[in-house]
């Protein structure tokens, strides 16, 4: 196997492992930590990608009780925004599980 092909397989394995960590849904009974800043949220997301928690979730101000899996956070004009698979939302509560 050429070195390039081995590198592609290794990279694909790492990406697949990280993707498996992202499919966990909120777990009832898991300890929850409320996150308040974009930095805390992004650090928790990175820890999740490395297998150290069950994920980062948020409820949006305009979406009601719906819970979204979070993939990135930012602050714009003093408002915390988080990116879910549906786009950017203004979060009312962000927490990590585990």
Keywords:
98 residues, alpha+beta, 6-stranded antiparallel sheet, 2 helices, 6 strands
Task: Explain what this protein looks like in three dimensions.
With 98 residues, this protein is an alpha+beta fold. The protein has one domain (3-97). Helix content is 33%, strand content 36%. It contains 2 helices and 6 strands, in the order αβαβββββ. The chain has helices at 3-22, 38-49, and strands at 32-35, 55-60, 67-69, 72-76, 79-84, 87-97. Strands 1, 2, 3, 4, 5 and 6 form a 6-stranded antiparallel beta sheet that branches.
Quick overview of this protein structure:
With about 100 residues, the protein is an alpha+beta fold. It is built from 2 helices and 6 strands. The protein has one domain (about 5-95).
List the helices and strands and how they pair.
Elements: H1 3-22, E1 32-35, H2 38-49, E2 55-60, E3 67-69, E4 72-76, E5 79-84, E6 87-97
Antiparallel strand pairs: 1-6, 2-3, 2-6, 4-5, 5-6
């Amino acid at each position: 196997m050429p070195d390039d092909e081995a590198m592609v397989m290794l990279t694909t394995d790492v990406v697949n492992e990280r993707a498996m960590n992202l499919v966990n849904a909120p777990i009832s009974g898991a300890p929850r930590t409320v996150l308040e800043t974009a930095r805390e949220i992004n650090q928790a997301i990175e820890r999740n990608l490395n297998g150290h928690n069950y994920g980062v979730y948020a409820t949006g101000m305009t979406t009601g009780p719906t819970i979204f899996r979070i993939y990135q956070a930012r602050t714009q004009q003093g408002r915390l925004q988080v990116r879910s698979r549906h786009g950017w939302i203004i979060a009312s509560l962000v927490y990590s599980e585990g």
